[in-house]
Design goal:
The complex is a heterodimer of chains A (about 110) and B (about 190). Chain A is mainly α and about 110 residues long. Chain A is about 80% helix and about 0% strand. In chain A, helix 3 runs antiparallel to helix 4. The chains are: A mainly alpha (about 110), B mainly alpha (about 190). Chains A and B meet through helix 1 and helix 2 of A and helix 1, helix 2, helix 3, helix 7 and helix 8 of B.
Chain lengths: ~110, ~190
């Protein structure tokens, strides 16, 4: 048992030394330099996000358009026209809301 | 495992969102191992390894939003590095196939049985396998093993680095060795 432990420790020491020792590690100066370069790259990278405020505004605009259509149509409000109006409004709202959901999902995939 | 896939995907998302702290964490976890992977793949050509390492990391940061979460992050990084290495060899007019590591006998069963032959340890395949196995271990284990055996620090120094007592560090190293041996034997050279 002690021999097994001894061999395991010695061999793992030699294996890790062969894999990660000496020249197999980057110079510390280069390491710092590359990290700085990567940070610069990250900062310069455009974030691929569609602004939520813009999506919110689109939602409001679509809602107002649907209301305006109903008002402008000059139809006397009955329960049928109200239901149709609600359906059109909901359908139109689905566009920006769906966009928000899709954009948010893509952000987190 | 090194860090669970969920933690890894969160790290990727934070990098894609432009978080510098996440980039630093990613760099701490993967950069050195990726360098070792490239260095061994190029048979110790230091200057080429440095160039390809930088190119691979830059390509990874640029293309991180395309990471599909179908593999571990380090596996993905190695795939980028392999493509860069292949491009490098093509530019030099060398056949990529001729530079691939040759299969060597699996001596992992001997880890606790006898001293491993030096020639086997120096094989490219073995060294790359060591790097990839280390990368699958929990970060604390990997850090302890590399500090103790690759950087030749004393147990007391490793304890200082990890902020642990001497006894706790000895115990951690023992667990890290067992984990390394188990994964190395399990993987049979396939990562």
């Amino acid at each position: 048992m002690d021999d097994q432990k001894k061999y395991a420790e010695e061999n793992i020491h030699r294996m890790v030394q062969a894999g990660m020792g000496g020249q197999a590690q980057p110079d510390s100066a280069l390491r710092e330099e590359v990290l700085m370069r990567l940070k610069g790259e990250l900062r310069s990278k455009p974030t691929q996000e569609f602004p939520t405020t813009v999506l919110g505004l689109i939602t409001v605009v679509f809602a107002l358009i649907s209301d305006w259509w109903i008002v402008q149509s000059g139809i006397t409000p009955t329960w049928e026209t109200i239901v149709i109006g609600i359906l059109i409004g909901v359908n139109l709202l689905c566009i920006p809301i769906g966009s928000i959901v899709i954009v948010n999902r893509r952000r987190h995939v | 495992m090194n860090s669970d896939p969920k933690a890894e995907s969160q790290l990727v998302r934070r990098i894609v969102a432009g978080e510098t702290k996440a980039l630093e964490q990613f760099y701490e976890q993967h950069a050195d191992s990726l360098y070792a992977y490239i260095y061994h793949s190029l048979n110790g050509a230091k200057e080429d390894a440095e160039d390809i390492w930088q190119e691979s990391l830059l390509a990874a940061i640029r293309g991180m939003d395309a990471f599909q979460y179908q593999s571990r992050l380090f596996t993905w990084l190695c795939a980028i590095a392999r493509r860069k290495i292949a491009d490098h060899y093509r530019k030099m007019g060398r056949s990529v196939e001729a530079t691939l590591p040759i299969e060597v006998e699996d001596l992992s069963e001997l880890i606790d049985q006898a001293p491993l032959p030096e020639a086997w340890l120096q094989e490219k395949t073995t060294r790359i396998r060591v790097v990839t196995v280390l990368q699958t271990l929990p970060e604390e284990y990997r850090h302890a093993l590399i500090s103790r055996y690759a950087n030749e620090r004393s147990v007391a120094e490793v304890a200082g680095l990890l902020g642990k007592t001497y006894k706790a560090t000895e115990s951690l190293l023992s667990r890290a060795r067992s984990a390394f041996q188990a994964v190395f034997t399990e993987t049979n050279g396939e990562m």
